[in-house]
Amino acid sequence: MESAAARYSPRPLTEGEQWTAAALAALRRRRYRPRAWWAFVRDSQARSRATRAQRPALARQAAEWGVTGGIVWVGAVLVARRFRGPAPGVAAGLAWWLAVWRMLDWHLGMAEGGDGAARARLAPADAVTLARFWLVPALPAAARSGRALPVLIALGGATDWIDGALARRHGRTRLGRDLDTTADLVFFSVAAVAAHRAGRLGPVGTGAIAARHGAGLALSLGAVFGRARRPAIRARPLGALLRATGLVASAAGAPRAGTPILVAGCLVPPRSTAPDLSIA
Asked: pLDDT tens across 149-169, in order?
C-alpha cells in the first residue's frame, strides 16, 4: 500500500513535508468531514506554536516584519493623502496585512531548505515576496489614477523577478516557494480586476487571466486536498513576464496592445516539477 509520504511526492521529503503528507492523508481518510477539518486546523496550529517555541528568532523576525509592514502602510497612506494622491484606506490595508502576517506565522514550520534543514531566519526573498502581498490593498485605489496603477503593477512584477533571483542565489525554502505562488495569484488577480473596473482592461483580457488563475488554483487544490499530493506545476518565467507586461500596458491605457500580450502569457503552459528533486 502506498505510504502518505510516497503519495505526497516521489522525492525524499523534509520533516515538514512528512508532517504535511501525514496530515493531508488523515484529512482524506476521514473524507473531509467537519471534524476532520477541525482536527487538521487544530494540529496545524499546534505545530505552529511548537515551531515558534523551538525557533524564537524566526518567530521574532516574522513579528518584526509584520509590525514594520503595518507602520509603513500607515505612513504611505498619510503621504498619499498629504499630496492628494489615490490613497487606500488605512483600516482595510492593516486588516489585510494582519491576515498575511497570520498566514506567515502559521506556516513558519515550512521555513526549511531542500536538504531538510530548518532555517533559523526568513530569507531576503521572503521579504520581497511579502512586499507583493503588501501592495495588494493599494491596487483598487491606484485604479483611480492613469499613472499609479501601471506603476504599481510594474512594481509588483519587479518583485516577482527579484524574489526569484534572490531565491536562486541564497536557496529557496518550501515557505518561499508557496508564498511566491500565492502572492502572484492574489496580486495579479486583484490588479486585473482593478484595471477592468477602471475601464482599461476588457472582458477578453480579464477572462483570460481569470481562466488561467482559476485553472491553476483548481489543479493545485485538487492535488493537495483531493489526492494528498504536492502540486507539481510551476509558472514559466516567459508566461509571467508576458502577463505582467500585458497588464501594465492595459492599465496604462493601451488595451489594444496589452490584451494580446496578456492573453499570450495566459496561454503559456506551466512546467512540470514532478521530476525535480530539490527545492533550491
From this structure: 999 999 999 999 999 889 888
